[in-house]
Amino acid sequence: MSISAIMAVIFFVGIIMIALEDMIKINKAAVSVTMCILLWILLLTHAEAIFLMGTPELVDAFTKAYPEEMALWSRHDIAAEYLNRTIISSFGDVSSTLFFVLASMAIIEVLDSNGCFGIITKSITTRKKRSLVWIVAAITFFLSAFLGNLATVIIVIAILRKLITNREDRLPLSCLSIIAANAGGSFSPIGDVTTLLLWTGGNVTAIHQISHIFLPALAMVCIPTFLVSLSFKKDESFDALDLCDNSTGHYISHKFQSVLLGIGLMSLVMVPVMQSSVHIPPYMSVLAGLCILWVITDIAATVSKDPNAGKNKVSSLFSHLDIATVLFFLGILMSVEALKQVGVLTSLANSLNVAIPESKVIAVLLGCCSSVLDNVALVAATMGMYPLAESGIFMPDSPFWTLIAYCAVTGGSILIIGSASGVTVMGLEKVKFGYYLKKFSPLALLGYFSGVGIFLLTGGI
Description:
Shape: globular
């Protein structure tokens, strides 16, 4: 068996193990990092063979960059140096995504620890179930565009627990939040890791993504929301609303929370603007926002003289960050970079093109696959399979890449295990797979294909 075939098998087995995380009880981060290490070990231990298999333009660029060294080095030394520089370059590209995710997580943790999201909770005063369904869907949809779909569902579940004490009453809204969060995350370049990859990779620009995906995403959330609202009687109400929140320190006023929430949201909203206008990398923009919050909250905690204020300092909050998720992204993205070196993704793309000539059908099917397989891995692999072109169906902002941005994120709503937000809600609210499959998978499918139809009708043809 060839090296490329062995690497393809390792990647395939790894993806299946990630999809079956709940069954095999092995954290997906451990699987992805192990997979990444195995793939790069195979590359480095078969340096000469890999160098000869490498992408011609990359190999030519490398040899032309070091003409004097080429004359002195052996073929093995050249191949080893090529792969060493490749892994460093790949890690540099991946790190920009990881630092963005990590800084975004830290901002959300700062806002949450200071009770900033309580402002949203207190603003919801309705008791009617139909009204609350639409309010929760709208908040989730728009909030996920700024904070990301995973963080948003965590916040929304916390809000719902304060508003609705009965778990059975919460379940429909909790499940709907998965669909709304993924829909909202699809039209924003920072709403999901997959859209972030497409944006930073140059496949889709921020303005194009927002303008072309907003209406399909809106259909994706509105149709299920309308149908869920009809499941409640017109004047049916919840028993009680609990809007009190005394978990934060006494020095944290409503005004202070509002300032922090404004800074946090603006630091995320301005990321695409700063990148487009002054070409500041996204991770630097979001790190700048984190630093502003860091200084303000640390000063406030110190001046307050509150003995418990130390727990709200950013340095103390770092221990709450989900490092396992960051390592998972590292393993997946570096694994895809390894596969690029042996042409596995190119071969797969060619086979897929022969079997399914229509690129939009491929995008829709990949979205359906994301209901079972991790969408980060799918999109990263797709980007490796179809390199950007100056013109044609794979050029930046083409209908193919735009549809991928929509389908890969929203397709994860079809099954509750299809997205990180779904798995999170499943764990927080103990939602059974069968319950979601019966009551919400049909709604998600209807919304998904409605969004695809609107995309094709509004300029995606």
